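FAQ: What does a multi-protein file look like?

Like this. Sequence, then tokens, then the next protein.
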Amino acid sequence: MATGLLPLCFGEATKFSADLLGADKTYEAELRFGMTTRTGDAEGEVLSESPVTFDEAALRAVLPQFMGKQLQVPPMYSALKRDGKPLYELARQGIEVEREAREITIHRLELLEFSGLKARLLVRCSKGTYIRTLAEDIGKSLGCGAHLTALRRTEVADLVLPRALSLEEIAACDESQRASLLQPVDSLLQGLPRVDLDEPSARRFSCGNPVACDRNGLCRVYAEDSLLGLGLADESGLLHPKRLVKQAGDDRCQPD
């Protein structure tokens, strides 16, 4: 039921995998109105059925209320834990516990298609957003209930689905060619401002020392077009190493 983009990190790129987990994501979601399920999606037991009496104009009218920052209660069928146990394990035992609402942000919510009982939406959202819960909440606001029938992730940060490869496409390539399919590490960091250092500053930075910088905040740092890592520039004009990338044959921190 869930398809789409799954970023895979290898080598030095794994140092930035946490940034991908926290990044904004974009989905295409298909909703089925007039029916609620135990899991909030098509895999769960049907709980209720109601007539669908609204039209496309009514659907478009309710979508803006789900835009922006808001509180969302995570579903019971989720991997969140309570006392060390995933909530979905408790849910399968028929146990429901209170969940604290969490702040999420819906940056973009567009109706792509509507056919009476079903709708397809584009959703760009912050980390921690449950699209199943969003589907249920939209159905509730329309008075008929809804559940998610399909979900396709199309973007993670600056990574987009059209540039992705399927496992079948990768398997069809000669093993010697597979490394060329990988995106460079800094493709994960394109949303950050760039700082270029000269050789003396690059040496200091790569050894974990701060260097002078005229920027502020988190930056991607380079020397001669080679990514050194992430730096955090403060208001005093210093750029502090935050996460360094190992360079092939790097001897910057070796004594002269």
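And here is the next protein:
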Amino acid sequence: MFVELAVLYEKTIGWNILSGDVVDLGAGYFTEVVKKNDRNLASVFYAFHDFLHDLGIDLLYVQRPHKIAPQDGISGILDFFNENDDDLLTALSVKQILYLDLRKNIREETLDHRRLFYKTDHHWKAETGLWASRILMNHLNEPY
């Protein structure tokens, strides 16, 4: 009875958890949620940046989007991919490490976030990879 009530509650508030960390996003889209990151990933990037800098190599971090968009109702509640990435990008900015956030391009181009991914897993569609490569190429062509 309690399990049935929990499932009803989750469906009512739009969580639609299927099993474990898999969620039904609606319209046939499924993905896994990401837990809150408690590791300090920024320190890894700081060390890598310093290593490359000593070799005279620039570093550009490219932030990929996740199937769950920041504006989705479960972002920041059940899924922490975007929050983890926001924390990382904030830390990179503090050290002035360059990054390209593809999530920003999705918003600017008003793309349908979910349609960038295959319905039943977290992988980008081939067209999304070509879109991302165009964004990256244009970004790199600006200063170089």
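Q: Is there any per-entry metadata?
A: Some entries carry free-text notes. For the entry above: DSSP finds five helices and five strands in the chain.
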